[in-house]
Design brief:
Blueprint (H helix, E strand, L loop, with lengths): L14 E4 L4 E2 L2 H9 L15 E4 L14 E5 L7 E8 L4 E4 L5 H11 L4 E2 L20 E5 L5 H14 L9 E6 L5 E4 L12 H6 L7 E8 L17 E3 L24 E3 L6 E5 L13 E3 L9 E9 L8 H11 L6 H5 L11 H4 L12
Antiparallel strand pairs: 1-2, 1-3, 4-5, 5-6, 6-14, 7-8, 8-9, 9-16, 10-15, 11-14, 11-16, 12-13, 12-15
Helix pairs in contact: 3-5
Length: about 375
């Protein structure tokens, strides 16, 4: 059904995807893939098992069930299988271990370290006049990914993992949490109703048509050693309203936004990322995506992490490198009309990285 136009924006139309995140741009292409006659090998060749219609117009990894794993080859290194594992259905949270290597973790930290400053907060109307430290005591720096080959490769890798063009991303927000520092439970999306007096915010989210869709959260170091209980170090990302055995349909409303004992907790592990979605497949905001950064418990420890926010529409941080990466994904990758149709000259690319995408990216994509 058509979505209404807001005062300053248009909701995205629904979109059709294969079950591996390939955006379908023609029925002919879908039938070609289903019959196994279209271009492509690996995860995309030999027939598409099913198609998914997402009302919100952007790809989200289907959760299936807790513990389910989607497997992608050659994403982080040649021959390496990357597992996208479902941690929660409500909200949708998946994890990927060893997404970053030690050199990349260290590179992000060293690039950001000289610039770290106390974190700010976009205050809702109800919180005006309050200090940011009432909610958040960490330090942060927005790290540009431009003119840095390591960060540009990470840009591409995130895009191929999420199937969302890097043109939709903010710069990396690097975070540092020292002993007992935290961020109370909050949403990453911006609810227009909560910012009704902030005209700049309302314009930026197009009165609800545009918002943060997904957060790719990097754990840049571990707080505990091998064999130690992860909860002993704290620093977990907590989703207090996540579905549990006690609350299979999602947890009740939260009253203590600093309580990390409820719902789902994910503990720091160097190189691991989680992806959690702030919007539902139909494009509406997911209230259950409430999450917080919990206290670091060791007195001599520092937690390093980073947010990589992806919007459902293009963001304004589009430099030449990101334009190239977006072109790779949209014109040479998942969205290409000729690619999905598998006709004409594109048939000659049957084994190319273009259709294989994150299923078998190929070294030419410089993802690692």
């Amino acid at each position: 059904r058509p979505r209404p136009r807001t005062p300053s924006g248009q909701y995205q139309p629904a979109a059709l995807f294969t079950d591996r995140g390939v955006r379908v741009v023609s029925v002919e292409g879908l039938l070609s893939l289903a019959s196994g006659s279209g271009a492509g090998t690996g995860h995309y060749g030999g027939g598409a098992a099913r198609a998914l219609l997402l009302e919100g117009g952007q790809w989200l990894w289907p959760p299936v069930e807790v513990g389910h794993a989607h497997e992608l080859t050659d994403l982080v290194a040649p021959g390496v299988v990357t597992r996208v594992v479902t941690l929660s259905l409500k909200p949708l949270v998946v994890e990927v271990e060893n997404f970053l290597d030690g050199g990349e973790n260290g590179h992000i930290i060293e690039r950001a370290k000289p610039h770290m400053a106390k974190s700010g907060v976009a205050l809702k109307d109800a919180d005006k006049g309050k200090a940011a430290k009432e909610f958040r005591t960490s330090s942060q720096y927005f790290l540009p990914t431009t003119r840095d080959p390591t960060l540009e490769k990470i840009d591409r890798r995130v895009s191929w993992l999420t199937r969302i063009p890097i043109s939709h991303a903010e710069y990396i927000q690097v975070l540092k949490y020292n002993h007992l520092e935290h961020y109370s439970a909050h949403h990453d999306y911006f609810d227009p109703a909560a910012y009704a007096s902030n005209q700049q915010m309302l314009r930026s989210v197009e009165h609800g048509a545009k918002n943060r869709l997904a957060t790719v959260f990097f754990y840049l170091n571990s707080l505990v050693g091998e064999g130690e209980a992860p909860e002993s170090g704290g620093g977990q990302t907590n989703f207090p309203r996540a579905a549990t055995t006690a609350y299979p349909n999602g947890g009740p409303p939260v009253h203590d936004y600093f309580d990390c004992s409820r719902g789902l907790s994910v503990y720091p592990q160097e190189g691991k990322i989680i992806i959690f979605y702030s919007m539902l497949p139909n494009g509406e905001m997911d209230d259950y995506s409430l999450h917080g950064g919990c206290d670091v418990l060791f007195s001599n420890a520092t937690k390093w992490s980073a947010n990589f926010w992806l919007w459902n529409k293009p963001y304004h941080f589009v430099d030449p490198a990101r334009r190239r990466a977006t072109k790779e994904l949209t014109e040479d990758g998942f969205d290409a009309v000729e690619l999905i149709r598998g006709v004409g000259s594109m048939r000659a690319r049957a084994g190319s990285a273009a259709l294989r995408g994150a299923g078998a990216t190929g070294a030419g994509r410089e993802l690692y």
